[in-house]
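Practice problem: predict the structure.
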Amino acid sequence: MKSVCRCVVVCMMGACLSVAFAQEQDTFESNVPPEPVAWTYFTYEAPASFDNKPLTPRDADTPASSTDAGKGKVEIYEYEIAITPFIKQLDRWMFGVGTEFHWTRFNFQDIAYDTEDLYTIHVPFLGIYEDDTWLFMGSVGPGVYSDLRHLTDDDLRVTGYLLANYIWSEKLKLSLGAAYDRVFGKDQLYPLIGCVWDIDDEWQINLVLPYPSIMYAPNTRWNFFADLRPAGALWNVNGTEKDSDFKLEGYRFGLGAEYSVCRHVWLHLAGGLAFDRKYEYRELGYTHLDAEGDDTFFARFGLVFR
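Answer:
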């Protein structure tokens, strides 16, 4: 929590400086690529050691399993694919519907847990409004957080976000909004706040929390970046036909590059540090897994379509 607070303070100071030093509006063309309309990534997170606490039953007469406590490791594999096209335009409005699929595999080592495959599926309905002063963006739609073995009502959630951008100048946008999803390991409503500053045609600083990033595009073919992302989720696990939840918390700080292989297709490569990891598995009120993982590295590659 302290590290997150420090991050907020530093980023907000940067936002204030961005406003103070933003240049007057002038016409320029940025090399920084636009937001993608589709992407597909594969991510590998190296084994992280953890020390699991013993099972804690609500019923004191229920014995804890000796296999629940102890030291172990877990490595994570992820694959995601998303398409977010805009299919209808009305004056200053644009509307669309997308699909997102995310597979996550937890491969446990040195502890008595099986490999767990968990899935996140979203169908967001998208909208954008833009005029000379404002840019509004938002989405809302149903999602599934599950192992897909037995679907129940607990697997379903509605998530979304709304972001208002005030166009201060051609190079600076001030942003304020909110999002509701599970990227912090629980159902949570949280603010989106900050700014996006195009310093010149090569540099862009995005200080919209909690997804800050810096981009450097020396030309229209290359894009280098550094970013910080929350990397958590909460899934309903029904493999045992019991009410179970698997929670993941943490962040990823990465450095990467993208290369335009043709007009609309970019090759994406990134890697960095996965930190502040926490794993929790509850079944019928019993905590089978409650552990904080060591910091580890991750690597991500894929394709981005713009």
